[in-house]
Amino acid sequence: MKVVLVTPEIPGNTGTIGRTCVALDLELILIKPYGFDISEKSVRRAGLDYWQHVRLSEFDSWPDFLSARQPRPDQLFFFEDDGGSSVYDPDYPPDAYLVFGRETKGLQPEILDGQADRVFHLPMRSPHIRSLNLANAATAVVYQAMRRQLGG
Fold it and tell me: Which CATH superfamily is domain 2-145 in?
C-alpha cells in the first residue's frame, strides 16, 4: 500500500504523514509542485528523527506518476471531503494507492475526472466541521485501509 500526496502545501502535514508511513512500512509518494522545500526543517521536525527512514518517491506531475507507475484503476482510491462513498466501504487491496490532494483545494478536477466511483470521504458528525487536517485524515484512512493486514 502506498500514500500519495498531490501538491502538498504544508510541510508539517507531509512530515507527519511520512512518520505514519514509516510506522506502517508504507511508501510515501509526493507529486510536485510542493508549497514548501522538501528539505525544510519543519518537514523533518514533524517526522522527527524518522524522516530518514521514509521510503520516499517524487514525481514532477500527476501524468508523470501515472506514466511511471501505471496503476490499475482498481488500485486508486481518492479522498475528498465530498466523496460519494465512505472510507469504510471499499475493500482495499494490499497494492492500493491512497491519494490525497492539497490542504486548501483538494485534488485537481482533472485528476478526479471520470473517477466518481473511486472518491471517498471520512464521515463527520458535526455540522461545524468542513474538513479535517490532512495528516489526521490520511492517518485515519491508512489505518482503515490496512485494518485487515494489521489484524483488526
Answer: SPOUT methyltransferase, trefoil knot domain (3.40.1280.10)
